[in-house]
Amino acid sequence: MSAAPLVVGVGARRGVPAAEVLTLVLDGLAAAGMPPEALTALATVDTKAAEPGLTEAAARLGVPLLAYPAEVLAAVPVPHPSAAALAATGTPSVAEAAALTGAGALTTGAPGTARLLVGKRTSGPGARATCAVAHGRTPHHLCTKETS
Fold first, then answer.
1. pTM of full prediction above 0.85
2. CA torsion angle 57 95 137 79 (round to 10)
3. Which ranges of 32-69 does DSSP label H, i.e. alpha helix?
């Protein structure tokens, strides 16, 4: 059985440098207790999918950059919605919703099949990026023992 996917959702302002994204992603993974090698993908809103800082960060991490429409992300319940994200992108969450959507899609293709390991974090003062870490759940029929 393959490991459940680990996806980092990333929200970013225009012009965010790849170095800022990389540092934030690696810090998010460390906070989740996960090594960089466990990362399956980065995910974001489709209007940011061509942002050079995001595409370069994904390439340097050796993972794909998944992109989802704002309407899809807006339908995902998240613990830290943001009025600023809603105004800028059309969804109240990019990082958390993209992480959950990506991890869920890579697990079973069904929403609600992922959980946040690390909620929304920023890259620090003057932040131009946010991230959240989600892990896909292994379907019960693939587990070797029942969990509660």
1. yes
2. 160
3. 52-61
Where does residue 58 rank: exposed (0-12), middle (13-18), buried (19+ CB within 10 A)? buried
Question: Using CA atoms, how far apart are residues 98 and 126, in angstroms rounded to an integer?
Answer: 22
Strands 6-12 and 129-136: antiparallel
Q: Checking phi first, is residue 123 left (phi over 0); if not, alpha (psi -120 to 50) or beta? A: alpha
Q: What are 101's two structure tokens? A: 């959507």
The structure tokens 């070797």 sit at 144
Give residue 140's region: left, alpha or beta (phi > 0; psi -120 to 50).
alpha
The per-residue pLDDT for range 23-59, each reduced to its tens digit, is 999 999 999 999 999 999 999 999 999 999 999 999 9
Q: Token pair for residue 75? A: 């339908």
DSSP letter for 49, please.
T
